[in-house]
Write a structure and sequence with these properties.
13 strands, about 350 residues, alpha/beta
């Protein structure tokens, strides 16, 4: 814990704001041998983390003071969870125990000495769940308040290396997104033009959750599930936003092989600002029978035409399996015979 400015390691300090702790739970699954071994293997030193570090009380205060005084170099400040600015801009709804100061205060102090500032999870990025609804705590993200630039640090904020806040969005983010971002920062391979318009690394943001979804055959034929237990596409009736949601969730999968849609749950676009305020979770909003949320780059007229054509060409096998909780008609040459 007593690193000098000359320490060769990439020093990371992790704070938690208004959070369920799910982002920490996600990253603990990172790597075949575990997160801590993965950190060590890439020369990343975790200076302190409120859930996994042994230091407590006065020890933590000493670490924070040394970081703030630059006697411990801070390569990356990470925040998990929203920043609570209330009441009345004091931040006292979320105090950092033992310091007499709020997380809001500490975020501002430490961001000023950090080479990079990283938000882990949509709460830290955009406000997330604590910012939903009336928001009496004045919860916000680090540099965005929903879709609006600003947040706790302000739109003009730039870290020591000249970057805005790097937003590893998700509720929770994939552990690979977190580690790969930290590795890229530690090797100097993440620049400002590697972020999208809301601060997400493009290696995440250049993909959609829809890509590699196990239900894509049903999507292609617009063969839709009507209940969550069924195998068909979840977009038409059950509110799935995978065709609009940033993330390679279905390409890399979670915990060895899972994903929301693979588990039978509709994508809620949790990597997007304001996802927590969406209406009709698990129910598709429609206008004149057409889903309101269409694929990002598809005009409505094209979608309507494609849907009509696809449904008219749907094989019996696909149509039957879409509304079942298991395969009732397996693939066969004529599409109708069951294989023993």
């Amino acid at each position: 814990m007593q690193q000098s400015l000359q320490s060769p390691a990439f020093n990371v300090l992790w704070l938690q704001g208004a959070s369920c702790g799910g982002c920490t739970m996600a990253v603990l699954e990172s790597g075949h041998s575990g997160w801590f071994d993965e950190l060590r293997s890439f020369g990343i030193r975790l200076i302190w983390h409120p859930s996994v570090s042994e230091a407590t009380g006065a020890e933590v205060v000493a670490i924070l003071d040394k970081v703030r005084a630059r006697s411990i170099r801070l390569d990356a400040l990470i925040l998990e969870g929203s920043v609570l600015r209330g009441p009345h801009g004091s931040g006292r709804f979320n105090m950092f125990a033992g310091t007499g100061k709020s997380i809001y205060h500490w975020v501002a102090e430490l961001a000023a000495v950090a080479d990079y500032v990283v938000s882990v999870g949509s709460c830290a990025a955009y406000g997330g769940i604590p910012a939903a609804g009336i928001n009496p705590t004045d919860a916000t993200g680090l540099q965005f308040d929903g879709t609006a630039p600003g947040g706790a640090l302000g739109e003009a904020f730039r870290s020591g290396r000249g970057l805005p806040v790097i937003n590893i969005a998700g509720c929770a983010p994939h552990p690979g997104w977190i580690m790969e971002t930290l590795i890229a920062l530690s090797t100097g391979d993440l620049a400002g033009n590697d972020l999208d318009q809301v601060g997400r690394p493009k290696f995440i943001a250049n993909h959609l959750a829809h890509h590699a979804c196990s239900r894509n055959e049903f999507y292609e034929f617009k063969a839709s599930a009507e209940k969550l237990s069924e195998r068909g596409c979840l977009m038409e009736h059950l509110g799935c936003k995978a065709t609009q949601a940033v993330g390679d969730c279905n390409q890399r999968s979670w915990n060895g092989g899972g994903s929301c849609t693979k588990g039978g749950y509709a994508c809620i676009s949790c990597t997007s600002p304001g996802f927590e305020s969406s209406r009709h979770f698990l129910e598709t909003s429609k206008l004149a029978g057409i889903p309101v949320g269409l694929p990002l780059d598809m005009p409505k007229a094209w979608f309507v035409a494609l849907s009509a054509l696809s449904k008219s060409a749907t094989p019996k096998r696909v149509r039957s399996n879409a509304t079942s909780d298991h395969i009732v008609v397996p693939p066969s040459r004529d599409g109708s015979k069951k294989i023993p």
